[in-house]
Amino acid sequence: MLEWNNETAEAALAEAQRQNPGPWVSHSRYVAMACRRIARRCDNLSEENAYLFGLLHDIGRYVGITSEKHLIDGYRYCMARGWKKAAQICISHAFMIPDIHTSIGTFDVSEEDYQFMKTFLEHAVYDDYDRLVQLCDALALPTGFCILEKRFVDVTIRYGFHPYTIARWKKTLEIQAYFEKKIGCSIYDLLPGALDGRSCSGAPSES
User: Fold this and answer.
1) pLDDT tens-place string over residues 49-88
2) Is residue 154 within 8 Å of 141, Cβ to Cβ?
3) Which residues 6+ apart lie within 8 Å of 189 measured at CB?
C-alpha cells in the first residue's frame, strides 16, 4: 500500500499526465481546489483528503482517450495502491444518481467490467466525499472555476443530451443546496472567477 498523502497523489497525477497529456489534468486540479475550499468549511470533512480525492477522480485517464472506461481504470489504479475510497470516487463521481443506466458516456468496456460497475453502484454507500467530488466535478473547467450551468452546457455539447441528463442536473443542484446549507454561504463565494465567467490565468495553484 502506497502512503496516502499529497506527495504520492501529485506524483501519480504527474505520471498520468506524461502518459496521456490533456486538459483533463488541469480540470482535475481545479476540481481538487474546489473540493478543498468547500471542505474547509465542513466540520465532517478533511480538506486535505477532499483535495486528494478531487485530484485523483479522473486518474483512469492515464490509459489514454476513453469514455466510461476511465472509471474502471481509475478504480483499479487506486485499489492497487490501497486507496480504497479514492477508488470508489473514481467510479462514483460520474454517478450522482447511483444507477449505471444514468451514464452519459459510452461503455467502452468489457461485459465483465460493465457488470462489475453495475453491481458496484447498486451497493455503493455514498458519503460527503463522494457528493463533494460530484459537485466539484461540475464546478471546474480546464481553465478555471465555473457556475454549474456552464459546466452542464459544456458536458452536453460534448456528450449529447441523454434520457437522464435533466435528472443528473437536478441531482447536482440538490447536492449544491446540501453543501451550501452546511457551509452557510454560496459555493461561488469560495471559487474565484466562477460567477463572472473569468478563466483563471496560468497553471492551477492553491494558496
Assistant:
1) 999 999 999 999 999 999 999 999 999 999 999 999 999 9
2) yes
3) none
